[in-house]
Amino acid sequence: MNSYVKEIIEWIVCILIAVVLALLVRYYIGTPTIVQQTSMLPTLEPNERLWLNRVGRTFKKMPERGDIITFEAPSVTRVKESDVDLENPVAIYDNEPQGLWKKFTYYVLEQGKTSYIKRVIALPGEYVEIKDGAVYIDGVKLEEDYLPDGVVTDLLQGNDEYGYFNNFTVPENCVFALGDNRAGSKDCRSFGCIPLEKIEGTVAFRFWPLSKFGGVE
Predict the structure, then answer these.
(1) Domain for residue 12, yes or no?
(2) Would you say residue 217 lies in a domain?
(3) Which parts of the chain sit beneath pLDDT 70?
(4) In what order do the strands lie in the sheet with 127-131?
């Protein structure tokens, strides 16, 4: 083998190692992301850049109330009132890709995958009730200092649609999450609670624009 061919092979090996390491870091540790939705206004605006912490997903750690998370969008994003099961208020996921390669591109490369970004409101075992323009957890009104004054929380959401997940207990290993833009966010009010296994990451900090660099409350 001449030196030229050997050098090419070495470069290919180095590139492959770099790609594998990058994918491992992206999947297990953290990754940048771009805000594409308006559901978290005014906390997060479209085109802002965030860093997601994925260590929690790696170790299957439940996020805390108030954390901003990203998660795989359910396959049914608006459950009809007649189909809502408050005894098992879990979002429906029936779009599992088939085959090793499709699973790799979907879950690791995240091609063809839609993700939502919302704020954790309630945790497993907690009773959720939306009434009088606010969220109540186990009968106690939730103080949400991150919301602007005057924001009303009810079951009316984006596109003037109603969600019907209300007055229920959050199931084991699930969270109930809402967008800060309560009137313009399609969230767990419409599709139910998010299983821990579908949570992709927790927002660690915002790095763009530079004027807003830092943690996100």
Answers:
(1) no
(2) no
(3) 1
(4) 140-141, 134-137, 127-131, 168-169
Q: Which pLDDT score, from 0 to 100, does residue 1 have?
A: 62
How many domains, the chain? 1
Read off the pTM: 0.93
Burial 33-72 (b: 16+ CB within 10 A, else e): bebebebbbebbeeebbbebbbebbeeeeebeeebbbbbb
Q: For 77-100, write each residue's pLDDT tens digit.
A: 999 999 999 999 999 999 888 889
Letter for the amino acid at 186?
K
Q: Does 153 reside within a domain? A: yes
- Residue 137, amino acid: I
pLDDT at 209: 95
Distance of CA 187 to the CA centre of its chain: 10
Secondary element (H or E) of residue 178: strand 174-178
Which residue in 123, 96, 91, 115 sits closest to 188, CA to CA?
A: 91
CATH code assigned at 146: 2.10.109.10
Amino acid 108: pLDDT: 87
Q: In angstroms, rounded to a whole number, what is the distance separating the alpha carbons of residues 143 and 166?
A: 18
Does some domain include residue 6?
A: no
pLDDT of residue 199: 97
> Domain of 52?
32-212
pLDDT 10s digits, 193-205: 999 999 999 999 9
**Are 48 and 209 in contact, with CB atoms under 8 Å apart?**
yes
Show the tokens assigned to 117.
């970004």
Any residues with CB less than 8 A from the CB of 48 and at least 6 apart, and which? 34, 35, 206, 208, 209, 212
